Amino acid sequence: SSMVNVTLVTGFLLLGFFEDPSWQTLCGMLFLLLYLVALMSNLLTITVLSLDQKLQAPMYFFLKNLSLLDISLVSIPIPKFIINSLLHDNSISIPGCAFQLLLMTSFSAGEIFILTAMSYDRYVAICCPLIYEAIVNSEACVLMAGVSWALGLLFGAVYTAGTFSGPFCGSSVISEFFCNVPSLLKISCSDTLLVIYPSLGIGVCLSLSCFICIVFSYIHILSTVLRIPSLKSQSKAFATCLPHLVVFSIFMLSAFTVYLRLPSDAPSVTDRLLSVTYTMLPPILNPVIYTLRNRDMKQGLRRLLPALPACQASTA
């Protein structure tokens, strides 16, 4: 009889940042601007890396994958949030929410794996330069990238299936601007948490092992670099490695708070800002850090930009 007064949830409301419609509009416009910056910069990175024959090293292959993941990651929650903010409509359907969760967890996991592959690539390049060509060849790169995407999708699927395997009851409000696990677990009324905790555990173990691999790579890289006699080579090695470490740390810290927060507490402003950091910062920072700090990429851009008007002229 106690089951009678439980209302089953048939759709969700995504709580944005503001109740006030005019603030919502402003927020929507700001996100639209940030989204376009993230989109254009990553598309530019992919274009330069695809068209420039001089930028075909493994490092750039992984960078292209990272940009693709960034575009995917940012394109799932943000356009929906922008539309909701501008139309002042916060609803999202249950399939829509599941889809959002599936793709966001998949691309996040994929991004962690690709960043790990990138650190391995730098590790072999700097610490074992003589066997670099043999170890990090094109087959190995395609394999690492493929495994990263596949593992990401697998993890996302397990995670989403666990979260959506039972009904939701009580409140239909998700106190974030996209569907994420802690908020959904809070309103789930099924006993399937047994599925979620193992997959959360696997997620934590995978992320931590990636984190350990990356830290291990960088400790080796730094100790190798510090033994290099020339300061110029040292600074060049630091320039490729430190930005990577910064991006990874920001991504991991904010992702951990987004996915592994306890579901009981209502998200504060800080939590919501961390969600924004996690979805918006890597896609905007990655191209800046990897492209503008990299001499070869800058030259690639310079080679590409004069080529663009020439292409248009020849097609006209």
From TrEMBL:
* Any single GO CC term annotated in Swiss-Prot or TrEMBL for this entry: plasma membrane
> Which InterPro entries has this protein been placed in?
GPCR_Rhodpsn, GPCR_Rhodpsn_7TM, Olfact_rcpt, Olfactory_GPCR
Reading the lineage from the top rank, the first entry is: Eukaryota
SUPFAM superfamilies with a match to the protein in the record: Family A G protein-coupled receptor-like
- Pfam families (alphabetical): 7tm_4
Localization, per the record, is: Cell membrane
Cell membrane as UniProt keyword: yes
Q: Where are the transmembrane segments?
A: 28-49, 61-78, 98-120, 141-162, 200-225, 237-260, 272-292
| Domain G-protein coupled receptors family 1 profile: from-to ranges | 41-290
Entry membrane topology: Multi-pass membrane protein
Instruction: Using the UniProt record, give the first listed, main subcellular location.
Output: membrane
In its UniProt record, a GO molecular function of this protein is: G protein-coupled receptor activity
| Keywords in alphabetical order | Cell membrane, G-protein coupled receptor, Membrane, Olfaction, Receptor, Sensory transduction, Transducer, Transmembrane, Transmembrane helix
Tell me the protein family, please.
Answer: Belongs to the G-protein coupled receptor 1 family.
What does this protein's UniProt record list under function? Answer: Odorant receptor.
Question: What is the protein name given in its UniProt record?
Answer: Olfactory receptor
This chain's source organism reads Cavia porcellus (Guinea pig)
